[in-house]
Specification:
single chain, transmembrane helix, DUF6892, globular, 3 strands, mainly alpha, DUF6892 domain-containing protein, transmembrane
Length: 279
C-alpha cells in the first residue's frame, strides 16, 4: 500500500476529510503511524515486563506447548496449523496495544483535521491588510487574567492566522538569549519562553479575528514553551476563565478546550454565548 492509498483509506470514514489535500493527509498519516508504532512497542514492552514479573515461567510453558505441537510431522498442513496455533496463543498480548494504537490514530486524525479546518475558518475573508495602528490604538491592549487562555489566543493570532509578528521560535530565541543556556530538548517549561508570552501585549484590534479556539497538545505555542511536551499533563489546561476576558472577543463562537475542570469553565463560556466542548 502506498502512502497515498494509506492516507485515503485512513481518512475514508472521517467526516470533512475531503476538504484537505492529499499532501496534508499524507503528512498527518505519517505522524500518526510513527506515534502508533511507539504506542504498540511501548505497550508490548510493558506487557512482557508484567508477564515476566507476575510469572516468568509462562514463557517456558508456551514454548513447551508449541514444541510439543511441532513434534510428529513436517507437512505443509502441519506447519500451517502450528503457525495458526502460535498466532492464537500470542493474540491476546497484541489486542491491547493494537486497540490503543488504532483508537489513538482515529482521534489524532480527527484532531489534526479540526485544526486545519479551524485555521481556514479563522483566515476566511481576512486577507486584507492588517490594521494600521495609531499611537492611541497601540496602547489599547487586550487584558488577560488567565495565562493559558492568553496562550490559546496567541496560537490563533500568531501561528494560525500569522497576524502577530514576528512568530516566536524557541530555537531562534535560544540562539539569541543572553542568559543561561536554553535546553531546546526540554520536556519541562522553558521559563524565558513562558515569560516572553506572559509579557506580550496584544492590541485589541486583533480581537475580532478570533472566531474559534482549538486547544491541542501539538499546538505550536505549547511546543515553543515545552519542545518535547507529550501533551499528557495539565500544564496548559484551561481551568480558570473570566467572563470579562471572553467578552473581549466578539466573534469567538466556538471553542474546543483542554481542561481538567471543564464543567467550571463551561459555565463561563456558555454565559458568553460560546459553544464549548472538551478536547
Amino acid at each position: 500500500m502506498t502512502r497515498e492509498e494509506r492516507a485515503e483509506k485512513w481518512f475514508s470514514n472521517i467526516s470533512g476529510a475531503e476538504s484537505i489535500s492529499i499532501e496534508s493527509k499524507i503528512e498527518i498519516c505519517d505522524k500518526a503511524a510513527k506515534r502508533m508504532m511507539i504506542i504498540i512497542l511501548g505497550l508490548l514492552t510493558l506487557e512482557f515486563i508484567l508477564l515476566f514479573v507476575v510469572g516468568g515461567e509462562i514463557f517456558t510453558r508456551v514454548a513447551d506447548f508449541l514444541n510439543r505441537i511441532s513434534e510428529g510431522g513436517h507437512t505443509g498442513n502441519h506447519s500451517q496449523g502450528l503457525a495458526l496455533t502460535g498466532i492464537i496463543v500470542f493474540l491476546p498480548v497484541f489486542i491491547i496495544p493494537l486497540t490503543a494504537a488504532f483508537s489513538y490514530k482515529n482521534n489524532y486524525l480527527k484532531a489534526e483535521l479540526a485544526k486545519i479546518v479551524t485555521s481556514r475558518e479563522n483566515t476566511a475573508g481576512k486577507e486584507s491588510a492588517l490594521p494600521s495602528f495609531t499611537k492611541e490604538s497601540e496602547s489599547d491592549i487586550l487584558h488577560f487574567d488567565t495565562l493559558n487562555f492568553k496562550l490559546a489566543i496567541i496560537q490563533v493570532l500568531m501561528y494560525d492566522l500569522h497576524l502577530l509578528k514576528p512568530e516566536f521560535d524557541i530555537y531562534a530565541f535560544a540562539d539569541q538569549y543572553k542568559g543561561k543556556n536554553i535546553d531546546t530538548d526540554s520536556d519541562a517549561i522553558i521559563e524565558p519562553a513562558m515569560n516572553f508570552f506572559k509579557e506580550m501585549e496584544i492590541p485589541k484590534n486583533f480581537a475580532p479575528y478570533v472566531e474559534m479556539l482549538y486547544m491541542d497538545g501539538g499546538n505550536d505555542v505549547y511546543m515553543n514553551i515545552i519542545p518535547q511536551w507529550d501533551g499528557e499533563d495539565d500544564s496548559f489546561d484551561l481551568n480558570e476563565i473570566t467572563l470579562e476576558e471572553l467578552q473581549q472577543f466578539p466573534n469567538l463562537k466556538k471553542a474546543n478546550l483542554m481542561s481538567s475542570d471543564f464543567d467550571k469553565v463551561k459555565e463561563v463560556f456558555e454565559a458568553a454565548n460560546i459553544a464549548v466542548e472538551p478536547l
